[in-house]
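Researcher: Let's do a round of design. I'm pasting the structure tokens now; please hold your answer until I've finished.
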């Protein structure tokens, strides 16, 4: 009996160790929402068994060159930030060459920075923000748009997603607005995603009058600062902070 009790106690502690190990590991993987400053492509689940981190693990917490701040840091410079992040991989290398050419900052990088155009409130549904790309009042080129052309395997040119969240440190809801087509597969589809600056045909003037209708997270109100993080099909990701 004594041997049997001893064996049972060993089995009990072995099972307890297994259970304890599971309860330590599971929350670290599933319960931690990624920090807003960490791009999804760089987020990794914790590994290891709870022992001291190895040098490789310590390297992972070093500053991420693709990280995006949740709120504008002091002295925020959208051109400088997006150039640096582009060099880290957010902008295709071939396009970086055009950005770095003389005048390329406004002609190419500024062209991909968002701004809020002055338009009639009638054009914009409640709970949405009007967003355009390439603010001419800042000397930036206006971003054109183009439709896909399957006949020549051309994917088109526009911002196919725009993520938006209130620009505050800590947790905040972020909405990912998707634009799967430009100018839309039907009139109704177009109107649900876009408006036209000045009215008329969205395809006029190389699609430069395209207004993206960006749904705001709940609770965001006029006067709030939001982070607008968008992706151009050809030219990569760009981030800036705007006032609603
Ligand atoms: Fe573009």
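Researcher: That's everything. Go ahead.
Model: Designed sequence:
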């Amino acid at each position: 009996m004594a041997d049997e009790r001893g064996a049972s106690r060993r089995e009990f502690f072995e099972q307890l160790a297994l259970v304890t190990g599971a309860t330590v590991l599971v929350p670290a993987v599933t319960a931690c929402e990624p920090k807003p400053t960490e791009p999804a492509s760089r987020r990794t689940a914790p590994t290891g068994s709870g022992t001291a981190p190895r040098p490789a693990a310590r390297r992972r917490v070093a500053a991420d060159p693709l990280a995006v701040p949740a709120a504008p840091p002091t002295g925020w410079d959208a051109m400088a930030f997006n150039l640096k992040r582009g060099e880290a991989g957010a902008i295709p290398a071939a396009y970086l060459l055009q950005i770095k050419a003389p005048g390329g900052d406004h002609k190419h990088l500024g062209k991909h920075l968002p701004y809020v155009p002055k338009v009639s409130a009638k054009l914009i549904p409640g709970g949405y923000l009007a967003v355009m790309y390439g603010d001419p009042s800042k000397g930036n080129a206006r971003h054109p748009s183009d439709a896909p052309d399957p006949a020549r395997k051309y994917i088109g040119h526009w911002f196919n997603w725009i993520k938006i969240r209130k620009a505050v440190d800590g947790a905040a809801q972020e909405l990912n607005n998707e634009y799967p087509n430009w100018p839309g597969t039907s009139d109704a589809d177009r109107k649900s995603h876009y408006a036209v600056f000045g009215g008329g045909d969205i395809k006029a003037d190389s699609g430069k009058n395209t207004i993206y209708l960006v749904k705001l997270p709940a609770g965001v109100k006029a006067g709030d600062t939001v982070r607008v993080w968008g992706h151009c099909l050809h030219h990569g990701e760009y981030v800036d902070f705007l006032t609603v």
